[in-house]
Amino acid sequence: MKKLTLTLALILSLCILVLPAFADAVRPVIGIVQIVNHNALDAAREGFLRALAEAGYVDGQNMTVDYRNAQGNQDTLASIADYFVGQQVDLILAIATSSAQAVAGLTESIPILGTAITDYEAAKLVQSNEAPGYNVSGTTDMNPVEDQLGMITRLVPAAQTIGLIYTSSEVNSQMQAALAKAEIERLGLAWKEITVNNSNDVQQAITALVEQVDAVYIPTDNTLASAMPIVYEAALQRKVPVVAGDGNMVMEGGNFTLAIDYEMLGYQTGLMAVQVLREGADVSAMPIQRQTDFNYYINKTANDLMGIEIPEDLLPYAVEMRATPAP
Question: Which of 110, 139, 185, 214 is deepest in the core (most CB within 10 A)?
Fold first, then answer.
């Protein structure tokens, strides 16, 4: 009897020791890859994690989150993608198009959810946005480009020539710029375009552009988003208003826009992740999701300094700039 009791005690002790290690081994690991720091992408990541937390998935308790940021470096991005695929993580959140392309090119089995991506089909991440077909799905940050440009004609009715500036290598930006050109022409206005390769090109490009145009349109572009203080300085000097694709860009150096909420976009993506983790949902059969409600973002500081009158119905959305660079 004593031997049996001792044996049972030993077995119980071993179980107590082994169970935590087993729990660590089976809890899901989510790799998050982000191309660069800026408020919109950060907000998308935070929204994603909030959705998971509200569903009961807590980092360090019943899941593991491995977040890595490429800081805008393509070699670093490739290394992060290699690492996540090599580790065979359970799910990857890819924030921005280049992040998704980096991981999608390396695995056909790990579920990948993207966010802050304008068009998955154009980026060759899916067979179609309605039926992805591959191991990639997620949420799109496609903005109402036509309505954004409509804000220029409303707030700056004298504008005749609209400038476009974006990164030549960003698929998101190329697509939105094409839509913007078509809408500008439909409005009977002219446009001038300058593209950049990286953040080092922004100052020279925007300085040249504001000399030639009456207003500037910037799509949701990662390089330009991180350089909005530079854009602001050049635009303010010439009093050329800027409408940007993202509300965070407006509050860091633009004038106004009508755009999505990136935190809510990330939250939508998090709800999709819950379906994958909890229900075993197949991402290849999950249509790309989008937002249908948009928010006004009005930079009161920039508009006041440029002498642009904000219509009464938009005044509730007008807020002071987060930080005002010296003009």
Answer: 139
Query: Under a CB-based contact definition with an 8 Å cutoff, are residues 259 and 143 in contact?
Result: yes
Q: Looking at the domain 17-140+262-285, which fold is it?
A: Rossmann fold (3.40.50)
The two most distant CA atoms of the chain are separated, in Å, by: 96
Cα distances (angstroms) measured from residue 59 to each of 53, 62, 71, 197: 8, 7, 23, 37
Whether residue 70 contacts residue 36, with contact meaning beta carbons closer than 8 Å, is answered with yes
149-208 pLDDT, tens digit per residue, is: 999 999 999 999 999 999 999 888 999 999 999 999 999 999 999 999 999 999 999 999
Nearest to 88 by CA among 58, 118, 73, 66: 66
How many angstroms separate the CA atoms of 174 and 311, rounded? 31
What residues does CATH 3.40.50.2300 cover in the chain? 17-140+262-285, 145-259+294-319
Q: What is the pTM of this model?
A: 0.81
